[in-house]
Amino acid sequence: MKWYHSLLVRITLIFALALAGLSAIFFVVARYETLRDVQTVVDYSHVALRAAFDRQTQNLDFGKLEEMGFSLVTDETLKDKILDRPRPPKPFPMKRMEERFRYGVDCVPYGMHIYTILLNRDMPPIVLEAPFKKEILPRIVFPLLALAFVVILYIGIIRSLLPLKNLREQIKRFANGHYDITCKSNKHDEIAALANEFDAAVTKIKSLRDSRQLFLRNIMHELKTPITKGKLAAEMLEDTTYASILQNVFKRQEALLEEFSRIEKLSADELKLDIKAYHVEDIVDFALDLLADKKEHITCELVPIDLNVDFELFGVALKNLLDNGVTYSKDAHVTLRNDTKCITISNEAPALECTLEDYAKPYFLEGKKQKSSRGLGFGLFITWHVIRLHGMKLEYRHEKGTNVFTIWLKNETSSPL
Fold first, then answer.
1. Helix/strand/coil (H, E, C) string of 361-374?
2. Where are the beta strands (DSSP E) in 268-401?
């Protein structure tokens, strides 16, 4: 998942924009209030200037200015800093009024105070501290409280979404076959409700899986017991012909039980692979041994290579393809070839009634197929999923009356000798 698809990133961006917007609003409001305070001091300074101006001497009475709350700034460093600050232009009527008193008036905010600057052409500027007390507490506390509220709200939402990450990890573990997970939550929001529902579903699925496994073990045990007794009874028969027939029947029944067990495990994705390197000849010999009565109908043209596979499962997959090939071939003959890229099994037979993908669907055998082709479906079902578990690909094509099954090997799966 890319970062811009993340819900956390989107929420973070929304709150970042909210914080930026609030900060901009508070800045504009603070700027407006500062200008308003400066204008108030300007108006008051003009009133004080008219009151302290002596028309006879054309001078200012600083005593009256002090009585009205102004104090003279004597710190030269502070005066220089105040005089260096930019001052807004004045409207024309204000200039005309200042010319009558021979003094220009500017007001400059600096720090926590507002200073009045008296300008005269015949003398250096006079800096007075105006009687203004800036109310800092309401101007700082309210914005800080608003920003803190937004931050706390953001933290609360993020904390409520964090369990999604743990829930996602638990779902991934559950999908990989781990049933010993728990994601219960004591919270009361929607995410906690989702986690609790998923936990209840996992518990129910785990119970169903355990019941199914117990049922399969009991069924396998109950079915194998009479087969074992039958094999023992067949050994006691004096007629070797009947004994051989019965033994083959019981062996076939055992093979079918094993096949049904594999089908059930494949359907539940519980089949585990034991991958090791084996010679292709050994794997093919194992598959042929499982087809002892059909070996003479199979022609093998092998190129010596090593395959990294599960020996037994891959051998069973080959056996199923070979068995189906011999059973449904017009001449009861199958050819197996290989190279470093693929294994090919071909026979002369009619095309499959359904697509190869249909045979890989669980319980497809109960559908549209004829009874005469049921064995083909079971074999292909197991083969398809075993090949898939190995990371390989099984392809089928029918050309010029020949069925061709191709197992495409992975590059790291095979290596020439």
1. CCCHHHCCCCHHHH
2. 275-279, 298-301, 305-310, 334-338, 342-348, 393-399
At 278 the three-state DSSP class reads strand
* Distance from C-alpha of 329 to C-alpha of 326, rounded to nearest angstrom: 5
- Whether the CB-CB separation of 342 and 395 falls below 8 Å is answered with no
Task: Provide the token pair at 239.
Answer: 């007629």
Q: Are 379 and 323 in contact (CB under 8 A)?
A: yes
Question: What residue type is 299 in one-letter code?
Answer: T
Residue 74 burial by CB count (10 A; 0-12/13-18/19+): exposed, middle or buried?
exposed
Share of the chain above pLDDT 70, in %: 88
Q: Would you say the pTM of this structure is higher than 0.85?
A: no
Structure tokens at 183: 């994601």
335 forms beta bridges with 299, 346
Angle at 64 between CA 63 and CA 67, to 5 degrees: 90
Of 400, 283, 392, the closest CA to residue 350 belongs to 400
Instruction: Tell me the C-alpha distance between 179 and 176, whole Å.
Output: 9
Three-state DSSP class for 42? helix
How crowded is residue 393: how many other Cβ atoms within 10 Å of its Cβ?
Answer: 13
At residue 98, does pLDDT exceed 70?
no
Helix 240-267 crosses helix 374-389 at what angle (to 10 degrees)?
A: 50
Convert the pLDDT of each residue in 69-90 to its tens digit.
888 888 888 888 888 887 666 5
For residues 381 and 319, is the Cβ–Cβ distance under 8 A? no
| pLDDT for 374 | 41
Alpha carbon distance 105, 249 (integer Å): 118
Model confidence band, residue 376 (pLDDT cutoffs 50, 70, 90) = very low
Q: For residues 161 and 176, give the distance between their C-alpha atoms in angstroms, rounded to a whole number.
A: 24
Residue 196 pLDDT > 80: yes
